[in-house]
Amino acid sequence: MLFVTIVMDGVGIGWQPDADQYGDQGADTLGHVLATCRPSLPNLTAAGLGCIRKLDVVPPVAEPWASWGRMQEQSAGKDSTTGHWELAGLRLDTPFPVYPSGFPESLLDGFCREAGVASILGNRPESGTVIIDECGTEHQQTGFPIVYTSADSVFQIAAHVDTIPLDDLYRMCEVARQKVCTGEHGVGRVIARPFKGVPGAWTRLSSKRRDYSRLPDEPPVQACLQEQGVTTISVGKVADLFGGVGFDRTIKTEGNAHGIDATLQEIRAADGPTFIWTNLIDFDQDYGHRNDPEGFAACLEQLDRALPQLLEALPEEARLLLTADHGNDPTYPGTDHTREYVPLLYYGAAHAVDLGVRPSFTDHAATVAAYFGLDASFGGLPFESLSGFRT
Which one is predicted more confidently, 112 or 316? Predict the structure, then answer.
């Protein structure tokens, strides 16, 4: 038995009814990218992407190879942790804290005291590359770590490896996670962001990045599968969003191409009941947050080209699910995530049906659990329990 979930990070498919509460009414990641850039997506078209709703350059097809639909997020928030947690069966009624004006001085004073540093640089929501460009030289001169956030609930610490060695940077992050970012300031993730280079040519060391996540209060679906003897594998940042909870093995990736290749390798190597959960980060990290619809469209084409290989590698009776965790419309004002429905393409069942609008991401957890015979619904409804699958 093999179930593969691929999260196209940030690939929303139109604003949700509650988008106005987040300032996102009118956001439409896929709709706007397709209309603006008109990429060629023959395999996603054949899968049924255009059956979900009207989309430019992706028409509906009479016999899609996957069941199709949308899922609506119920949790409060629109960040990656919140989206993945709900996909794992955990709904959040209170959002993780975010800091659109930077962290309060009391929090930073606590960090400096506990981490043993005299001061910090930065302290604002910003792109990592931008804030390193602006603060890197002063950081090397003073030795002060660069602390910043983003639209997500994150406390990020950047440091040059020759100024603050990796072990010291990791220690600072552990201090922040355990002693500072707690209670009302319990952010989703504390992230170590090491870099190297010289002014004007800084390079972030993505392979040395470490995420220190807030741990789930209840067991997510992958932890329940793990207890039942299912091998659970994270490809990309998925495990980071759960503090590693529930995963037997974690494969770090450098981007979408690496994530797709690693997923293919794990599919081919699967032996016994296996759940593979992949996150493809480039849509969000490289293009959504940087208002680059052309790059976003190129990522869609890259995934489209890989789909035939993924399908060919799947053994009989396996399942493949393509979805997302939130929107990140590169044509929308600002660089924040956007509150959107996420697409749903579900392959491997006996025949393809219209899944409609699923009322919560927890339907994903329920579907995975049901596939492996786990007696747990996670507050959701398995796709294959719908009437269309039983005809």
Answer: 112
Q: What's phi and psi for 226, nearest 5 deg? A: -60, -40
Q: Are residues 85 and 162 in the same domain?
A: no
Which two structure tokens, joined as six digits, stand for 221? 């679906």
pLDDT band at 194 (very low <50, low <70, confident <90, very high): very high
Cα 23 to its chain centre, rounded Å, is 21
β-strand pairing of 274-280 with 231-235: parallel
Shared domain for 248 and 359, answered yes or no, is yes
| pLDDT value, residue 208 | 87
Last residue of a domain, one of 213, 244, 259: 213
Q: Is residue 232 within a helix (H) or strand (E), and if so which, with residue range?
A: strand 231-235
From residue 297, how far is each of 35, 101, 291, 302, 383 by CA, in Å?
Answer: 10, 31, 12, 9, 29
Give me the number of domains the chain comprises: 2
Map residue 273 onto helix, strand or coil. coil
- Containing 193, the helix (H) or strand (E) segment is strand 189-198
Structure tokens at 40: 């060629």
pLDDT at 391 over 50: no
Whether residues 171 and 234 fall in one domain: no
DSSP-based helix, strand, coil % in the chain, nearest 5: 40, 20, 40
pLDDT of residue 390: 54
pTM of the model: 0.87
The CATH number covering residue 227 comes to 3.40.720.10
Write out the residue range of the structural domain in which residue 304 sits.
Answer: 2-95+214-390
DSSP state, residue 113: H
Residue 379 domain-assigned? yes
